[in-house]
Amino acid sequence: MTPARVVISGAGGCTPLGGSLVEVGAALRAGRLPFAPSRHWPEFAVAPVEPQGDLARAPSPDAALRLLGGWRHRHYCHRGAQLAVLAGLRAAWDAAPGSASGNEGRPADWTALLPEDTPLLLAAGPMLDVSGEPGLPPGDVNRLGALWLLRWLPNTATAALCRLLGLHGESLTVNAACASALHALGEGFRRIRRGEAVRVLVAAGDSRLSEAGLLGYARARTLSRRGPECGPRPFDLARDGFVAAEGGAAFVLESLEAATARGARIHAEILGFGATSDGGSLTAPDEEGRYAERAVRAALAEAVAAGMREGPHWVSAHGTGTGRNDAVEAALLERLFADMATPPAIMALKSRQGHASAAAGAVELLTLLAAWRAGVMPSIAGLERPCSARLAFVREETPFAGPLGLLENFGFGGQNAVLVVRLWT
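The structure corresponding to this sequence follows.
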């Protein structure tokens, strides 16, 4: 059986740079940076999704936000879970019939947007809004709501999105630290490629901007101290940590055959996926990057088997802005690409939108789709003294050299996930 080609036929999000491909693309072209002082730790910058607090208070809500805002059970989803659900709704809407022609002919029933047997793979972060939970120690436990535990369960967002979209196929909640979103995308890719599904919804959401959410990072001294409105400096010799962000992004993956048959608009094609584990430190990456490199090579090998004959033209690096992670990743990229006749351009999107943790890979993929449509490859903000002279870091905005690229995410605990994609016009 010939493996199916897998494309992205729906995309939606809620990111610090905007909620749609048009909004994110406009923000990139304008050079807008979303960093602002943390409300809990003012000395640190964060990258929030607006509006902060209650998402339903947005001044101009779209149909997805009106649905989520009017759902009486949404308080069971913590902030990160709500971002995942909202992104999933927007991706399903984008993939619905009529999306390529001005949204005409959209079904009024949200449960009709996707076939009911569509699998859902959702990348979720942990519930860290401790201070927002009345009754939790040292408070009065008698004030707890009857179903307070739902806000702490990792699959609540998955259940909520299935409920709102009327999905009854396989549902799976993925948590692999900062590699979660790419893991979920890879799992969706594999299911379609092997013929186990025709269409899959992949969603991701996370928020670590609460007082408790930032506490661990502050204590571990991994947050950038450049200033309360400054972003991180990935791959710069003066890098001093990352900037925490929040966000959600989601995609409808589909076989090319099915997408073409229904006249769907195609955003991109997924060509390869690789995933490994360092099996070492609970926090630090493998010092030689051996297993992260193995994940990259596996993804590239699968892409070559699928017909990739050149490239990659660009790399969306993990690029957190921390000392050890950037050093290991830069060395890895040098080994793989520095000696190519035309080395790939290296982007670090966290310099422009912060680190969205479990949702990072999905938010970065959404940003790449937006950048491709806007015709601009984002430069690495704050990069003044590159840590490597052998890599083609993107130092100024420039058009994409080509559509083929690599997305890398390497998470706490040595979770490594890599995706190869071809962007479509």
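The first strand starts at residue 6 and ends at 14.
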